[in-house]
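Work Package 3 (structural annotation) set out to generate three-dimensional models for the target panel prioritized at the project kickoff. During this period the team completed the workflow that converts sequence records into discrete structure tokens, so that structures can be stored uniformly alongside our sequence database. As a representative example, we reproduce one entry of 399 residues exactly as it appears in the project archive.
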Amino acid sequence: WQPMQTNLPPAPVWDLVVHDNDIAVATHGRAFWILDNISPLQQYKPEITSEEVHLYTPDPASHTLFGGGFGGGGGERGQNPPAGAVIYYSLKTALKPAEAKKPPEGAATGAEKPPTPSEPTPAAKAPLVTLEILDQKGQVIRKYPPKRQPGEEAGDEEGFGRPPERGLPTEAGINRFVWDLRYEGASRVPRSPLWAGNTDGPQALPGNYQVRLTVQGKSHTAPLAIQPDPRLKVTPQDLQKQFDLLIKIRDRVTQTHDAINQIRDIRSQIEALNKRLQGQPQGKTVAEAGKQLDKKMTEIEEVLIQTKAKSGQDVLNYPIRLNNYLVALAGVVESADTAPTQASYEVFDMLNRQLDEQLGKWKQVLAADVPAFNDLVRKQEVPAVVLGKPAETQEPGSR
């Protein structure tokens, strides 16, 4: 026997029961005290304390997720268990990632170059701890820490979307992490609100999955089951149809947002180049060429996304565009555990055709207009370094 008081108040215990793998304790005068999910206790062995890393087998998760919470009332209220798959692992010692070294202030970062489509940044230093969810085929469907999205370092705001995902806990002892049962989501556009939908990935279907925890290069795996809701009269085939359409929508949203982010990245490079060439003999020619390129990009961008919407309520004044139609359609498709309606398939086909048209135009711009602009900049022999005008000097003591 070992004591485990945690936050249980010192009070007489009149009864104790294990229900759905939770311990419910009835105290005298102190209401109920519930310990959610005792699977780590059931799997505990003394030798675990000597292991550097131990991954506990998660309890089966339910395909039905509840938001939880109760309105009204007073006094102290309990906290509902988290929605999703609860994953426990223990670390013998805490792991703290080393802080990245920042370049000294004023250090050169390289000469600016003409606009080109966004390229992936060099891979950052691998995290000390990663957690992956694998499907029945052994393919990774979700990975933590999550991939960084554009604009996250500036505090991205997505309107009614979910808050940014937290990293993995790496404290000494038992750590808990909750997978929300969703696949990887679509890419996002920084500071761009969405209405009636979000960029979340579809929810995983009932079935058998795997959890893979990797700590400092060494992996540990455990099975994870997602159970269907026995109260729902829905067939696995209908859930599969729903999932398949949601995956297609997610992928199309990613293509849309990637194109938008490319457009905005190229525009920012053009603006930076124009600013650097102000007052230079090549400035006017480069600026005019950049203006023509930006015009073509804007025509595509304004069909893909509502450029005037900057906050959640702006879409009441400015109509949503293709990207928001897609996420709103996903919101309708996943609003109930059932196969998509025929109308949902028809709307998706319509949006698909419209998106293909705009992405086709964007491919043409990337293949012809961007290289032409870069060629013009090269012919102008834009200097790598442009000297600014020296600041005016003042007499000592003058104001």
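The two ends are 80 Å apart (CA to CA).
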